[in-house]
Inverse folding.
């Protein structure tokens, strides 16, 4: 190859990583208009008279939406938020749990509610500190650990899960770590260290932290739903029984490892980041298409924010300002009434309140920085 051809080849193949400040900047007007429309929808159509949102699905949507509103700057004193918080208060249990009677989703509902009370607590002079502390103790008590006869060698160890499924999973464990962090636990917390054991076993990456039968079958650095109960991934299995990685769980896993104090130079984090670069996408949930896409967008935002990066360079060498691209995608998907809803009904995302809750959480990571 002559020098001219070599130079042209290098120019074409070299990663395009230099985005200017204007490209990186989140459009303030787009953010404010998108948020305003969402709030209007929630006030006019979304919220029931008792302050709940989609209570047929439990108290999770109410907690999620209220946290999203608080994170986007809506005050705890705003009637839209205050009514929802009062509704959640009615579900606080004597044992510290925050959930509906007879629910299978004690971990999920308590974790989401704890995060909501923690977000409100910052504005209300510690009004909910005791509720948060008791909920923190409750979720630690239902984590799969020694109290359940589990040891570190058991594949379930450290996870959180749905009681109905009788096994821990990465989604519930991700919410568990979010809640523990919101309650003030540091990365050296025993509960977080236990959760990290389970997290590592949900990654398609063989290491001293993951010697499960699934670890080396795919080994692409992504994450799947659970290695417990025989293992499961909505993205399916390979011919040799490997559990395919997919977007939502990979971002949930990456975010959770960072929250658990795993260093960015750790091989597990590096492997997950490489998967993210290879599968970078805001249009769909990689591996599952439109199924669970709003859940995906919210963990996408959490993970990349936790990674402390403003750009991701994809497999083609193209640099992406992820906050700007996420905001544009949320704006594109928003319905005329201000809500979001998924045409794919899996995991209840066709419900506009649930989808709007996830979208609000994602939107909170697009909030423009204050002007100097």
């Amino acid at each position: 190859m002559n020098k001219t051809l070599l130079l042209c080849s290098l120019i074409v193949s070299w990663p395009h990583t230099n985005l200017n400040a204007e490209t990186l900047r989140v459009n303030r007007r787009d953010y404010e208009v998108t948020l305003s429309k969402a709030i209007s929808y929630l006030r006019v159509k979304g919220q029931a008279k008792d302050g709940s949102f989609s209570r047929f699905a439990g108290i999770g949507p109410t907690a999620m939406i209220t946290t999203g509103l608080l994170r986007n700057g809506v005050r705890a004193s705003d009637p839209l938020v205050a009514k929802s918080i009062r509704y959640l208060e009615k579900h606080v249990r004597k044992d510290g749990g925050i959930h509906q009677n007879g629910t299978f989703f004690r971990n999920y509902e308590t974790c989401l509610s704890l995060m909501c009370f923690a977000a409100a607590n910052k504005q209300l002079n510690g009004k909910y500190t005791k509720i948060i502390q008791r909920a923190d103790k409750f979720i630690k008590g239902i984590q799969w650990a020694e109290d359940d006869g589990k040891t570190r060698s058991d594949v379930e160890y450290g996870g959180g899960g749905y009681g109905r499924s009788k096994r821990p999973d990465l989604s519930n464990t991700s919410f568990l770590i979010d809640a523990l962090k919101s309650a003030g636990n540091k990365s050296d917390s025993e509960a977080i260290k236990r959760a990290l054991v389970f997290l590592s076993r949900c990654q398609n990456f063989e290491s001293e932290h993951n010697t499960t039968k699934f670890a080396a079958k795919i080994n692409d650095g992504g994450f799947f739903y659970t290695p417990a109960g025989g293992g499961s991934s909505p993205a399916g299995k390979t011919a040799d029984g490997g559990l395919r990685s997919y977007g939502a769980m990979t971002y949930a896993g990456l975010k959770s490892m960072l929250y658990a104090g795993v260093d960015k130079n750790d091989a597990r984090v590096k492997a997950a980041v490489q998967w993210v670069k290879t599968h970078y996408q805001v249009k769909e949930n990689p591996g599952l298409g439109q199924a669970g896409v709003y859940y995906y967008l919210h963990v996408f935002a959490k993970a990349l924010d936790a990674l402390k990066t403003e750009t991701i360079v994809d497999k083609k060498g193209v640099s992406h300002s992820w906050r700007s691209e996420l905001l544009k995608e949320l704006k594109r998907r928003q319905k005329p009434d201000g809500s979001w809803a998924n045409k794919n009904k899996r995991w209840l995302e066709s419900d506009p309140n649930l989808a709007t809750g996830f979208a609000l959480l994602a939107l909170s990571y697009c909030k423009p920085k204050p002007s100097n």
Q: What stands out?
A: The mean pLDDT is 93. The longest helix spans residues 28-46.
